[in-house]
Design a protein that fits this description.
Blueprint lengths: L25 E3 L5 H21 L3 H22 L4 H17 L17 H20 L6 H33 L10 E7 L6 H9 L6 E8 L5 H6 L6 E5 L4 H10 L5 E5 L3 E3 L3 H8 L6 E10 L5 H23 L10 E5 H7 L9 H11 L3 E12 L5 H21 L11 H33 L3 H26 L9 H5 L2 H17 L8 H9 L1 H22 L4 E10 L10 E7 L7 E4 L5 E6 L3 E8 L2 E9 L6 E6 L2 E10 L10 E6 L4 E6 L9 E4 L8 E7 L2 E9 L6 E8 L4 E2 L3 E6 L14 E5 L5 E6 L5 E4 L2 E2 L4 E2 L1
Parallel strand pairs: 1-25, 2-3, 2-5, 3-4, 7-9, 10-16, 17-23
Antiparallel strand pairs: 5-8, 6-9, 7-8, 10-13, 11-12, 11-14, 14-15, 17-20, 18-19, 18-21, 21-22, 24-29, 25-28, 26-27, 26-30
Helix pairs in contact: 2-5, 2-15, 3-4, 3-5, 4-5, 5-10, 5-14, 5-15, 10-15, 13-14, 13-17, 13-18, 14-15, 14-17
InterPro entries: Glyco_trans_2-like (IPR001173), Nucleotide-diphossugar_trans (IPR029044)
Protein name: Chitin synthase
GO molecular function: glycosyltransferase activity
Amino acid sequence: MIIQKRTSHQGDTTHETILKNSETTNIKNNPGNDNKDQKNKKEKAIEHKKEIQKKFDSIQILLVVTILVFLVVSTYLILGPLSMIAMGMGGILLIYHLISAQSKAYSKNKTGNRGPSVFLLFLLTSPFIIGAIIAYEGYSLLESPVRIILLWAMTITFWSTMLFVPMAVFSKHREEIQPELQFYPTVSVIIPAYNEEKVIAHTIEALIETKYPKKEIIFVDDGSTDKTLDIAMQYKDKIKVLHKENGGKASALNYGLVYSKGEIIVIVDADTIIGRNSLKEMMKGFQINEHVAAVAGNIKVRNRVNAITKCQALEYITGIQIVRRAFDIFGSITIVPGALGAFRKSFLTEAGAYGKDTIVEDFDQTIKLLKAGLITQGSTKATAYTEAPNTLHDFISQRKRWYRGNIQVLKRHGDALTNPRYGYLQRLSFPYLVLGMLVTPIIGFVATFNAILGVIQGDGLYVLQVMTIFTIVHYLMSALAIRIDNEDPKLLWYAGLLVFGFKQIVDFLLLKAIIEQISNKKANLDKCKEDRSLKNFNILKIAIIVLVLSLVIPINLVYSQESKTIQVEVKYTNGDRADFYGMSLVIYQDNNNTPFLKKEMEGNPDSVTLPKDHTYKIEVYANGMYGDVGYLNLKTEQEKINISIPLSGGIQFNVFYNDGKTPVKNALVAIKSYDGTQLRIGKTNDQGDTMRYWIQSTTKNSDYYVADVYLGEIQLTSLKQIKLLPGLTKDQKIIVPIPATVQDLITVSLYKTESEKITKNDGEFSILLKDSLGNIIKKSQTNNRGEAYFSNLPSNEYFLS
């Protein structure tokens, strides 16, 4: 046992014991019975599996058969052979995804030529195929748009229903036969909070009461101005309470990660109450595959008080139990919610810190994990209850924020549509997101317009038939979702609103978010200020319109310089396209030494609009390091510029104490640019080594990286002037001092089972602390809570007995 000095954020001592690779020391009673206990566990697991397999929910199967049969029969009998086209095209998409499911699409080694997603490409060209067939059948040009749009919508419905419904039931069966948890990894639960005084006590108490033996709860107050921090401090004996200046949820999460010790990170919103078994259920997801990076919880609406909240409750249930279950089979769930989500810390830190420039950090972080070739799973048994907006005003406020953030993330990760190495993210998940967030709202409004047009043209019966099919299918799918989740059947009454009313509001807000993104309207990142701004929305809107007109009209009359949009593409010197994350452009006009424009790259290539009849110098920076420069002349017809930057360099850190031989285990190494921007963060293993990081090489003498080393909450050292050569890797040795004496209180807990400590009724126990020669250094007797204490120990390696 290597004991190091650690001081908590609040000045209190941190109680911890490190024995070999474990953060918590468990000394079990009667170790001779371990093999017998393991055998009993295996036998119980086998019996449990057999018992589950005997269960057969005939109603679920009946609903699935009813949905599929109704879809096929009603299409043919009611709408005729022409509508079978839509089902046939949906079937083609279904076969494509079932065939692609045979390969391990999460492998990060998969390569291939870049190209658009076959799924999305086929779906977007479907209207033209349908239109050609309709024209061949002899319909007039005026009649065709109505049928094209409705048949296109039916194609999407057929495909999604035939794929998602059977897979949802299969996912439910797979979850039921999932084996019991074999081991309990250490879990760090992080609760970011800002002005949550009304709910934070319930959230903390629910987490304290969760049934999980190896957990730490980290509360991060993000500069609250109410009593949130004071309430959290009442639980400081049971949780770790941190406080920082207000910087947003992403900043609070990154802050909490620095102080976390668990190998699994669980994120819980401050207004969320999780189930007692939720942590244990989420850990089962990490047993499925070593590539599992995250597990999404089952979010439920707690305050079902009116039609708005009940519609949201049903929306959550159908989305999670039908759609998300299907993506769970593919290992490609695209949103691990911030309300309840678990992450393997090693993968989370490797993917990079939570982005502060996005509204929906949970969505952005999940996509980054999937692009790294990892798997995301879901656990519907890991429940969490959240407060949903209970007024239309609050609902619109929340969804405006969500949808604008979603559009931002889609734009940021647009390369996921064309890169085959992203597996199911490129084949299915990301195209489905584009379909749901960009295409569907447009289809919804166009379909509504065409339905009205169809009624005017005397095609009302056809429109009514199609709408009836959509409504019945939605009711049946809602019933299936409610049955799978064992939810309140009364919610089924609100399924109609999700087709007519609720859906139109959602489509309008999505369309509004798309338009705002296209027009580059700045998003409101501050959730807390959003409601206040909405109260004066109409006044502000009028004021902004008047202001814009008063500025734009005179400027256009006096100065109407023509601009041009050019493409900037950045490649490495070996010809590969560079990753645009952390990459920025600094543009100078003519011979001016003051930057004309600074821009974070949102893609590669990226578009830049500049005034014509000028020359420009474009500098590329990656991770804050200078890459290279390109020159552009808009006095000509140039439309694109390619800039080559040096290859990345690799670095691995080896952290040792000042004897140069003893490795520092579990040390946190944060890599920063010279301006202090954190780029990577990771921990050392038992040999004192971090993983190998590939970041932009340094070409200028003034460019360098900094490595800060922490043990717990104490910064041990900071290494500056780190240089990296293009295409080469190096090992960087870091020497840190050893503290002479550890004055902190060290707690050793004695367990008789996995989760139950010994008591006085079990007898009297003592813990002996020995040096490497077997000499007894100290002895401590356990108290009635099964705990023994040591303090003021010289720094050394110790053994417990």
